[in-house]
């Protein structure tokens, strides 16, 4: 999979993709992430990519011209399955959406900044709009990092134990069950006895039951989802 990202602050995305699972995914050749400085397509020699809003109001808006040129130049090199704009008023990211994205080959992410991007880009180029929560960030870079991480870890071969992603929270609309490691007894706090018995069927049944209990208690809303 290849993911291209358009940003006015690509430096914000250097660290997230150079460590841990995302780094290994790229080293294995399973994921390619390319961050592009939007100012490469600036409208003048000063690197301008934003301007004041029509109608007045605080905050600058990323202009049509640099974004359109960037999208068209990148799209001429490869066909994008989705052109995604990270925005607070987009569809809230969830595991189902991440699963769907992980089946794609090429994605282009647009990081908003300032007051956002010109609406005409959203109307004529963007195919999907994603929010990572009901709050406002300074820009779309951190949201893009979250989206890439969520997608990347689902790619076959990225995780050392490929089955581990299948039991993450929100797969099958359930939260993950409790997990334990050594020591077996810490300050008198003992692990559930079923986990020591070696009966894998009983362990899986216990984990599923605990997932349901935890989901009903903490996130009953997701049990109602398809």
Written description of the protein model:
By secondary structure, this protein is an alpha/beta fold. Helices cover 31% and strands 19% of the residues. The protein folds into 2 domains: 2-152, 3-Layer(aba) Sandwich (Alpha/beta knot); 169-223, tRNA(m1g37)methyltransferase, domain 2 (Trp Operon Repressor, Chain A, Orthogonal Bundle). It has helices at residues 20-27, 64-75, 95-102, 119-124, 141-152, 200-218, 220-223; strands spanning 2-7, 32-37, 50-52, 60-62, 82-92, 106-111, 128-131, 185-186, 189-190. The strands form 3 sheets. A 5-stranded parallel β-sheet has the order 2-1-6-5-7. Strands 3-4 form a two-stranded antiparallel ribbon. Strands 8-9 form a two-stranded antiparallel sheet. α3 (95-102) packs across α5 (141-152). The two termini are 27 Å apart. The mean pLDDT is 93.
Whole-number tally of structural domains:
2
**Proportion of residues in helical segments:** 25-40%
Low-confidence stretches: none
On the 0 to 100 scale, the average pLDDT is: 93
Q: What distinguishing features does this structure have?
A:
7 helices, Alpha/beta knot, 5-stranded parallel beta sheet, 2 domains, 31% helix, alpha/beta, 226 residues, Trp Operon Repressor, Chain A, 9 strands
Summarize the structure.
By secondary structure, this protein is α/β, with parallel strands linked by helices. Helices cover 31% and strands 19% of the residues. It folds into 2 domains: 2-152, SPOUT methyltransferase, trefoil knot domain (Alpha/beta knot), CATH 3.40.1280.10; 169-223, Orthogonal Bundle (Trp Operon Repressor, Chain A).
């Amino acid at each position: 999979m290849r993911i291209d990202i358009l940003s006015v602050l690509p430096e914000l995305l250097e660290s997230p993709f150079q460590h841990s699972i995302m780094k290994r995914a790229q080293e294995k050749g399973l994921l390619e992430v390319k961050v592009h400085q939007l100012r490469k397509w600036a409208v003048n020699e000063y690197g301008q990519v934003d301007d004041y809003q029509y109608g007045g109001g605080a905050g600058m808006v990323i202009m049509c011209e640099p974004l359109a040129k960037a999208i068209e130049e990148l799209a001429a090199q490869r066909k994008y399955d989705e052109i995604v704009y990270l925005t607070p008023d987009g569809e809230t990211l969830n595991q189902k959406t991440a699963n769907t994205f992980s089946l794609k080959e090429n994605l282009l992410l647009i990081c908003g900044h300032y007051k956002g991007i010109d609406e005409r880009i959203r109307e004529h180029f963007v195919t999907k709009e994603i929010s990572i929560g009901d709050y406002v960030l300074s820009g779309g870079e951190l949201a893009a990092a979250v989206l890439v991480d969520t997608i990347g870890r689902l790619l076959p071969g990225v995780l050392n134990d490929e089955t581990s992603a299948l039991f993450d929270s929100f797969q099958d609309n359930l939260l993950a069950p409790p997990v334990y490691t050594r020591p077996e007894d810490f300050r008198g706090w003992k692990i559930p006895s079923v986990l020591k018995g070696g009966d894998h069927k009983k362990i899986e049944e216990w984990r599923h039951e605990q997932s349901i209990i935890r989901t009903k208690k903490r996130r009953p809303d997701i049990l109602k989802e398809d």
